[in-house]
Design brief:
Elements: H1 6-9, H2 12-26, H3 29-32, H4 49-54, E1 68-71, E2 77-81, H5 96-106, H6 118-131, H7 141-154, H8 158-165, H9 169-186, H10 188-198, H11 208-216, H12 225-234, H13 247-263, H14 269-277, H15 299-311, H16 319-328, E3 331-335, H17 339-352, E4 360-366, E5 373-378, H18 414-423, E6 431-432, E7 437-439, E8 444-445, E9 451-452, E10 461-463, E11 473-474, H19 475-481, H20 484-494, H21 496-505, H22 531-542, E12 546-548, E13 553-560, E14 563-567, E15 574-576, H23 580-596, E16 610-615, E17 621-627, E18 632-638, E19 647-651, E20 654-658, H24 665-677
Parallel strand pairs: 1-3
Antiparallel strand pairs: 1-2, 3-13, 4-5, 4-18, 6-11, 7-10, 8-9, 12-15, 13-14, 16-17, 17-18, 19-20
Helix pairs in contact: 5-12, 5-13, 7-8, 7-9, 7-10, 12-13, 13-14, 15-16, 17-24, 18-20, 18-21, 18-23, 19-23
Length: 765
C-alpha cells in the first residue's frame, strides 16, 4: 500500500509544526501522550518550525546485536554466545499473522498515516482526558522503532539506556523528526521488518525470530494466529505479559490482541474465537548463552577465543572498540580446534583424572609450524557452580587470557637450556663432573653485563635425587636422568642470558606476564608457565627450530543486517628460534626419553615421538611435554591452589605413593596424542648421531622423581629418570641478583633436598 501523509499531504516540516501546534494549543496533549509539562521541552520555548528544522535528521542505526557462533575447524558448532539473543530475518520469513498482529495491537492505522498519527494523538488525548489518567499512548510503530534504535545504540550502558527512554519533550520531538525521516527513506514494509527484528519480547529474546524460538521452538515464519497474537501482546510489557511466569495474564493479553485483529479485519470473528480457546502451546527453549554451552569439553577453549578477540588490536584499537564488536555479535568464528584432537584430549583426561580428585589436569595440543591450537581441555568442568567443582579458570593459558599464575615446569625446562648451549656451539657430548651435591657456581654471567652471585656466607646448594647420581655425565645421559648438578654447571658455563634469550625466541614467558628471572635456578624449572606455553615451545623442536605464535581463530565473518563481510584475524608469526641442526639434536635427545627413559609410558607405539617429564618442588605439579613431527602437546597435573602435594594420593581411581611426570601426565599425553593422530600418516624426525662419551647403562631405571628442573623440547636430552627429589627444585634468585651481587635472601634448609635423578631403568619419573 502506498504511503500516505496525514494532514492532507503536508510536508514533513508542516506535519511536525501542525503536531506541535495542536499539542500546545490543546494544552494537555503532551501530558496525554505521557510527556511532562511544556516547561521541560529541552528546546527553545517557542517550539517553532525553525527550531524543529535545526534538529539533526539523520537516524544513525547501529547494527543489531545478534548471536555469535563459534565453530571448530570443520564447521561444527562449539558454542553460541551473544550479548542479545537475536537472529535478523527478512519480512518474507515472518508469518503474515505475526505481521498483522503487531500492527493491529500497536498501530492499527500504520499503513494509513505518516510518521505521526494526528488522529491517534487526538483520540489518545480525548480518552486520557476522560479517564483522568494516561490510558492510551499515541506513538506510531515508526516512532517506536526509532525509540528502539536509541535503546539499541545505548547497548548495556544503564545511563545511556535511561537517556534513550526518558520521558521528555525534547526526546519525543527528536524521535518525531527522525521518524519522519525513516518514513521517507524506508517505507512501511521495511519499517515493519526492522521493528520486528529490533524489539524486545522478554526472556532474553530480541527480535521475532529469537522470540519464536524461545517460546515455541519454531521459526517466525511458522507462527500461527494464536502464537502470533501472544508474541505481539508481550511487546507492550515483556515482564507483565511473560507467558512463562504468568500464563493467565499472558492469555488475557493474547486474547486482547485477537479481538483487535478481528476488529480491524485481519482475521474473522470465528478465527479469533477459536484461537482464544486454544492453549498457549508453549514449547519453551531456555536461554543458552556463552561458553557454558560449549560441546566436547571446549568451554575453556571457547573462553580463550573470547579473550583473544577482546585483547588483539586486529579487532579494534581499544578494548572498548573490540568489546563493542563482540557484543554486537553476528559473528561466525571458525577456530583451529580439531574435533578429533579435542575429543581425544577430553577422553584421555576423563580416563585418567576424575573431576572429584584432589588435583586437576590441563592439556593442550598445538600444530608445529602453524601455531594452531587443535585441542585444549581440563578435568575441572567449565562453569560457575563451585559446589559442583566447576570453574572458569583456564588452567592451560596465561593469566591475561583467563588463566592463573602458572605452574613450575620442573625438568621440562631443561631442553631449553640444552638448546641454548648447542646453538651456542657446545657439543651434545659435553661432560661435567655433576657431583651428587654442590654449591651453585658463582659468579654466573647474566644479561646486560650483569652477574649472579652466590651468598659467600651462606651459599645456596643443590643435590641430585640419589647419592648414587655422581658424574661425570654427558648431555644425553644427564638429560635422560635429569641430573640437576649437570644442568646447573651447564648454565653457569654458557651464562643465563643465552637461556632466557632462547626461551624468549621459543615463546616461553611467565604466566603472569613478567620476564624470566636472571638466576641459574631457571635451569631447574622454577619459573611458572602455562601448558599452552610449553606445548607451543616444544612445537619449535618438532618444526626443526621454527617458532610460530599460537593462534585459535582461522576466520571470522560478520553479519550486519542481511549482509556478511569478512574480518581480519590474527595470523601466526613464525621465526627461526634455532638452527635445524640444534633442533634435530634436541629431537634426538628427547626421542630417547620416550623410548627407554622416564617417558616410556607416554611413548607412542605407532609413530616416533619425543618428550620430557617433569616434577616440581614437593610434588605440587607433574608434567609431560612431548611431540611428534605433526603435533606437540603438554599435560600438567597438580593442585591449582598449590596446597596438595601429590604424595599418598589417588588420581583417577589409581593410588600413588609419589606422583612422577611419567606415571600420570605421561599416560594422559600418550592416549590423547594417539587419538589425535589416529588415521594420520606417520612422519619421521630428522635425527643426528650423538656419540657416547662413555659406556652407559641403557636400561634407565625407576629411581626417584622424574625430573627436577625443566625439560624443553629444544634439546631436552634423552629423558632418563627422575630429576627432582621430594623437595627438589630451587625457587627463584638465590643470591646476589644481577645488579650488584647483593644477597636476595636465603633458602629454607629443606628447599634443596634431593633433586637428582634416581637412576635408570624402571618406571619413568
Amino acid at each position: 500500500m502506498p504511503k500516505k501523509r496525514s494532514g492532507g499531504g503536508l510536508s514533513p516540516t508542516q506535519q511536525a509544526a501542525k503536531f506541535l501546534g495542536v499539542s500546545v494549543l490543546a494544552g494537555a496533549v503532551l501530558a496525554g501522550i505521557a510527556l511532562p509539562a511544556v516547561g521541560a521541552l529541552g528546546l527553545a520555548a517557542k517550539g517553532s518550525v525553525e527550531s524543529f528544522d535545526a534538529l539533526p535528521a539523520n537516524l544513525k542505526t547501529p547494527p543489531l546485536s545478534q548471536r555469535t557462533a563459534i565453530l571448530d575447524s570443520e564447521g561444527g558448532t562449539i558454542a553460541t554466545v551473544y550479548s542479545r539473543d537475536r537472529t535478523v530475518v527478512a519480512l518474507k520469513d515472518i508469518s503474515p499473522y505475526m505481521q498483522k498482529a503487531i500492527v493491529a495491537i500497536e498501530d492499527s492505522r500504520f499503513y494509513e498515516h505518516g510518521a505521526v498519527d494526528l488522529k491517534g494523538v487526538l483520540r489518545a488525548l480525548n480518552k486520557n482526558a476522560r479517564s483522568g489518567e494516561v490510558s492510551e499512548g499515541a506513538s506510531t510503530l515508526t516512532q517506536q522503532y526509532v525509540k528502539n534504535v536509541f535503546v539499541e545504540e545505548a547497548g548495556d550502558d544503564p545511563t545511556k539506556v535511561a537517556q534513550a527512554t526518558q520521558q521528555t519533550i525534547g526526546r519525543k520531538i527528536r524521535e518525531l523528526k527522525l521518524a519522519i525521516q525513516v518514513e521517507e527513506e524506508l517505507g512501511k514494509k521495511k519499517i515493519l521488518e526492522n521493528y520486528l527484528n529490533i524489539t524486545f519480547f522478554g526472556q532474553q529474546a530480541y527480535g521475532v525470530e529469537a522470540a519464536a524460538q524461545r517460546y515455541f521452538s519454531k521459526s517466525a515464519k511458522d507462527l500461527n494466529i494464536q502464537e502470533s497474537a501472544l508474541l505481539a501482546g508481550i511487546v507492550q510489557s515483556p515482564s507483565r505479559y511473560d507467558p512463562v511466569n504468568d500464563e493467565a495474564e499472558a492469555t488475557k493479553r493474547r486474547n486482547v490482541v485477537l479481538t483487535r485483529m478481528a476488529q480491524v479485519g485481519d482475521i474473522s470473528q470465528a478465527e479469533a474465537e477459536k484461537a482464544k480457546e486454544a492453549p498457549l502451546g508453549l514449547k519453551v527453549s531456555r536461554p543458552k548463552n556463552g561458553c557454558i554451552t560449549a560441546v566436547k569439553g571446549a568451554g575453556f577453549f571457547c573462553d580463550y577465543v573470547r579473550a583473544v578477540f577482546l585483547s588483539d588490536p586486529v579487532f579494534g584499537k581499544t578494548k572498548e572498540d573490540r568489546a563493542k564488536i563482540w557484543n554486537q555479535g553476528g559473528l561466525t568464528i571458525r577456530t583451529t580446534l580439531d574435533p578429533q584432537a579435542q575429543k581425544s584430549v577430553q577422553q584421555s583426561i576423563k580416563d585418567h583424572v576424575y573431576t572429584s580428585d584432589d588435583v586437576a589436569t590441563a592439556a593442550t595440543i598445538v600444530e608445529p609450524g602453524t601455531g594452531k591450537i587443535v585441542g585444549m581441555g581440563q578435568s575441572r568442568p567449565y562453569g560457575i557452580d563451585v559446589k559442583q567443582g566447576e570453574t572458569t579458570l583456564n588452567l592451560s593459558v596465561n593469566n591475561a587470557m583467563g588463566g592463573g599464575a602458572g605452574y613450575q615446569p620442573g625438568s621440562t625446562f631443561k631442553p631449553i637450556v640444552a638448546a641454548a648451549a648447542i646453538e651456542g656451539g657446545m657439543p651434545a657430548t659435553k661432560s661435567y663432573s655433576s657431583p651428587y651435591e654442590m654449591e651453585y657456581p658463582s659468579p654466573v654471567a647474566a644479561c646486560d653485563g650483569k652477574q649472579w652471585l652466590n651468598d659467600r656466607d651462606n651459599p645456596a646448594k643443590l643435590e641430585n635425587e640419589n647419592e648414587t647420581e655422581v658424574g661425570p655425565y654427558d648431555m644425553e645421559e644427564a638429560t635422560a636422568k635429569s641430573v640437576n648438578t649437570y644442568y646447573v654447571q651447564l648454565i653457569s658455563d654458557i651464562g643465563i642470558c643465552p637461556v632466557t634469550q632462547m626461551a624468549d625466541k621459543m615463546g616461553v614467558q611467565r604466566a603472569n606476564g613478567n620476564k624470566l628471572e636472571q638466576t641459574p635456578s631457571i635451569a631447574l624449572g622454577v619459573t611458572e608457565v602455562s601448558p599452552l606455553t610449553m606445548a607451543n615451545a616444544y612445537a619449535t623442536f618438532a618444526s626443526r627450530g621454527m617458532y610460530c605464535t599460537p593462534i585459535a581463530i582461522e576466520s571470522i565473518s560478520q553479519r550486519v543486517g542481511n549482509k556478511s563481510k569478512s574480518l581480519e584475524v590474527p595470523k601466526s608469526t613464525c621465526s627461526r628460534a634455532m638452527s635445524e641442526t640444534t633442533a634435530d639434536t634436541i629431537n634426538t635427545l628427547l626421542k630417547g626419553v620416550v623410548e627407554d627413559g622416564t617417558g616410556r609410558e607416554a611413548g607412542l607405539d605407532s609413530r616416533p615421538s619425543a618428550g620430557k617429564t617433569g616434577t616440581t618442588d614437593e610434588r605440587y605439579a607433574a608434567w609431560f611435554v612431548g611431540y611428534t613431527p605433526d603435533l606437540a602437546g603438554a599435560v600438567w597435573v597438580g593442585d591449582p591452589k598449590h596446597e596438595r602435594k601429590m604424595v599418598d594420593i589417588t588420581i583417577g581411581g589409581v593410588p600413588h605413593g609419589k606422583v612422577f611426570g611419567g606415571a600420570v601426565p605421561g599416560p594422559i599425553w600418550g592416549d590423547m596424542m594417539s587419538g589425535a593422530l589416529e588415521g594420520e600418516p606417520v612422519s619421521e624426525f630428522n635425527l643426528v648421531d650423538i656419540p657416547d662419551s662413555k659406556e652407559k647403562d641403557k636400561g634407565r631405571g625407576d629411581g626417584g622423581r622424574d625430573d627436577g628442573g625443566n625439560g624443553d623440547e629444544d634439546n631436552g636430552g634423552n629423558g632418563g629418570n627422575g630429576g627432582n627429589g621430594d623437595d627438589g627444585v630451587i625457587g627463584g634468585l638465590i643470591d646476589g641478583g644481577t645488579d650488584n651481587g647483593g644477597n636476595d635472601g636465603g633458602f629454607p634448609g629443606n628447599l634443596f633436598q634431593g633433586q637428582g635423578n634416581g637412576g635408570n631403568g624402571g618406571r619413568r619419573g
